[in-house]
Amino acid sequence: MSERGNLEISNVSKSYQVEGKELRVLDHINLKVAPGEFISIVGPSGCGKSTLLRLVVGLDDNYGGEILLDNKPISGTSLQRGIVFQDHRLLPWLTLEDNIDLALENSGLPNAQRRRAVAEHVALVGLTGFEKVYPHQLSGGMSQRAAIARGLVSRPEILLLDEPLGALDALTRLRLQEELLRIWRAERVTMLLVTHDVEEAIYLSDRIVVMHSTPGRIASDIKVDLPWPRDRASHEFADVRREILRSMDAYSSVAARAA
Amino acid sequence: MSVTTVNATTPAVRKTQQPDKANKRRVKPRDLAIGLVLPLTILLLWQVAAQRAWISPIFLPLPSTTLFSFFDMVERQSFHIDFLASISIVTQAFVYGTLLGVGLGIAAGLSQTVERIFGPTLDGIRHIPGIAWLPLIVLWVGIGPAAKIVVITKTVFFPVFLNTLQGIRAVEKNFIELADVLTLTRWQLVRKVIIPGAMPSILVGVRYGASLAWALVVVAEGLSGMEGIGYLIFRAQSLLMTDQLLVCMVVIGVVGFLIDRSMALLQRHVLRWKQGFEG
Ligand SMILES: Nc1ncnc2c1ncn2[C@@H]1O[C@H](COP(=O)(O)OP(=O)(O)OP(=O)(O)O)[C@@H](O)[C@H]1O
Ligand SMILES: [Mg+2]
């Protein structure tokens, strides 16, 4: 097992300037992710989940605190850190294969190896046969899978996933969850997944981080100690689910009282 | 879950649309027929009007006379030389204008400094129509093709430049962010993201520029010089050779039509990645 992909977020705070006023979006976030771990983040809309991922991937370096990958502070973007955006963000003018290949542009791999890596990852997400197809000819689920392939092809140590299955129908979603697990095991990559779906989080993760909002902070960090493959209908599953919902609910009852 | 089942259970693939698309693109004979009704009616009216001498034959010759006069012009007046003179001017001016427009458009789109340096000057030049430049430039370089090429280059340049600039500014910020995440260099960003992203807009400018160029060459040749289809049309007017005048008009129309069609084909080919793009 790879010992890389060791992420440490310590004391991270982030504010935006909105109309001259400071809007605190993240407040003293502390999170340690071990190599190869699968962590999910759940929390209400607007609590700063995407903002946190943007900081970790390096799109924004205007924050307080420290983000370390393998004990080194991150700076800017890097091929070590991949992200799958919620809107798949495939470039419409590139074929599926060229979209995935774009992630290897600066990988330093020779062409033959690049081609092989692309073909492997197309196969990994089950899109063999669609290499020459343009994004508008793909379904939403296929586009998401292509985006996941692009995130993985450069072999990042850590892959950040921002609601990658958000806009999918229930069945496709279940199928892609299955694929995510398979990919995670095959690639042994550290995964940080943002989702609104508590069941999805429990089904996939080693740990689940619950966030509360205004300002965004971590409310609880729950270890999921269920054996694989997980049974969504089991009592233990329901117990974890109750625990997480309670942790999320604490927020809304506080908010309700405050209102 | 195996890879194959994933594929088999994903029916939402739109790859099998090719025959459907081909169908849409091929003009059906009936549609073509509908489009021909009006021109044929006009031709018929022309024939009747000329035959019954509703309009004096000096001002409106028969369609058959006009056709004959076309062959006559080719044989006895080297019409093709004038024709090629016009085509050559337009082609050169179109190429220069497009290259300059795209080049400077990209530079200004990428750099605020470039835009600030060139912006005000170009804006000033833009508001003086191409034709208004012609007399001055003719004084400088003479009545040969050079002056016309300069003026038409200017006319092609602006729509191409402005559309390129606007196309680049409108490239989605999300895509730029993606390029950042993939650690693309600035040059890779321009080549893989910005130029393709601006291409629809660039091609709108190029297509418009091409049609302007062809229209303008007629005017420019009418105003200065001793050759070209524009020269012929004004000469025909002053000599009351209405048949030759009509020949020129028809040829201008046909060439303009062909230019626009080929631009549409180019657009369709380059933008084939765009959903539902039909030129
Ligand atoms: N560029 C920005 N300028 C100002 N405020 C911003 C900016 N981006 C995000 N915000 C604010 O930061 C907060 C957190 O946004 P963020 O997108 O991280 O939420 P989220 O947890 O991902 O929500 P969702 O689940 O709906 O995606 C929101 O209140 C949002 O209004
Ligand atoms: Mg979000």
Walkthrough of the structure:
With 259 residues, chain A is α/β, with parallel strands linked by helices. Chain A has one domain (7-258): Rossmann fold (3-Layer(aba) Sandwich), CATH 3.40.50.300. Chain A contains 7 helices and 10 strands. Chain A has helices at residues 49-57, 96-101, 111-124, 140-153, 170-187, 198-204, 235-258; strands at residues 7-18, 21-33, 38-42, 64-69, 72-73, 81-84, 158-162, 190-194, 207-212, 217-223. In chain A, the strands form 2 sheets. Chain A has a 6-stranded mixed sheet with strand order 6-7-8-3-9-10, with helices on both faces. Chain A has a 4-stranded antiparallel sheet with strand order 2-1-4-5, with helices on one face. In chain A, strand 7, helix 5 and strand 8 (190-194) form a beta-alpha-beta unit. In chain A, helix 3 (111-124) crosses helix 4 and helix 6 packs across helix 7. By secondary structure, chain B is mainly α. Chain B has one domain (63-270): MetI-like (MetI-like fold), CATH 1.10.3720.10. In chain B, helix 10 (186-223) packs parallel to helix 11 (229-238). The relative contact order of chain B is 0.10. The chains are: A alpha/beta (259), B mainly alpha (279). Chains A and B meet through helix 4 and helix 5 of A and helix 1, helix 9 and helix 10 of B. Adenosine-5'-triphosphate is lined by residues 16, 18, 23, 25, 45-51 of chain A.
List the topology elements.
The complex is a heterodimer of chains A (259) and B (279).
Chain A (H helix, E strand, L loop, with lengths): L6 E12 L2 E13 L4 E5 L6 H9 L6 E6 L2 E2 L7 E4 L11 H6 L9 H14 L15 H14 L4 E5 L7 H18 L2 E5 L3 H7 L2 E6 L4 E7 L11 H24 L1
Parallel strand pairs in A: 3-8, 3-9, 6-7, 7-8
Antiparallel strand pairs in A: 1-2, 1-4, 4-5, 9-10
Helix pairs in contact in A: 3-4, 6-7
Chain B lengths: L2 H6 L9 H8 L3 H23 L11 H14 L2 H32 L1 H15 L3 H12 L3 H25 L3 H9 L4 H38 L5 H10 L3 H29 L9
